[in-house]
Amino acid sequence: MPKWLVRLKGEKFDLEDLPSLLRSPEHTIIEENGSYYLKSSDFDSLGSADEVRERAIAIIKILNGAMKLHIRSFRDVSEDGVTIIEEDGRRHHYVYLGGSITARSKVSANLTVTTSNDTRQIAPLPSNVESWICLAKTDKAVVDVLHFFRENTWISLYKVYEIISEDVGGQQAIIRNGWATKQRLSRFTQTAQSKTALGDLARHAANKFKPPSQPMTIQEAGSLLRGVILSWLSSKA
Asked: Which pTM does this prediction carry?
C-alpha cells in the first residue's frame, strides 16, 4: 500500500526534538537526510495529496500547541509539501506554492526510519506530546486549549482558563482539584480583564474592571495556565 509523508518546515533546533516524542503508528516523525516528515495512520484512508495536506495541517496545529506546552521555547513548525511513496519505491512530491500545486517524481531507495541520534528502532512508548495529540482527536476542548495556549496572549490565555473552567465545572473545581490557588487565579483574571493594567492587550476595553494590587506579568500568566493545563490533561488520561 502506498505511504503518505508530509514534510515539515521549521528551525532545526525545534524539528530535531520531534522524532523522539512522536513514534507511534498514529503519529510518527521521521528524519531522513536532514529533512523531517510527519507520518500518520490518519493518512492511510486518504486518496489525494490535498486530503493528506489538509489533515496534516490540522495535526500540525495541535502538535505545535502540544510542543509549546512541553517545551516553552518551542517555535511552530509547518507543512512543506506532501510525498507519496509507491510500493515499488517511486516517490511523487507535491509542493504547494501560492495556492498552486506541482508534482515531480523520481525513483529512490526505501525510506529509512531514523532519529536525531541513530537509526535504531525505538519502542513505540507514547510520550506526553503524543498522548495529548491523540486525546485531541476525541476532545474538542483539548484542541482549543492547545491552540489558544500556543498564541500566548492575555486574551488567548483567558480563553484557555474559560475552556478548562467550563470543562470541569467552574473555577471552584480547579481550586478544589489543587491545580491553582484562588489567589493566583484571581490575580490572573483581574489582570487579564483590566484595561488599566494592560491597555489594549486587556480582554475588556471598559475601565470598570479594576486591576489587582500586584498585576501579573504575561510570563506569570503563562506559567500559571501551563500548570493548570498539565493537571487538567493528566486528569483526562
From this structure: 0.79
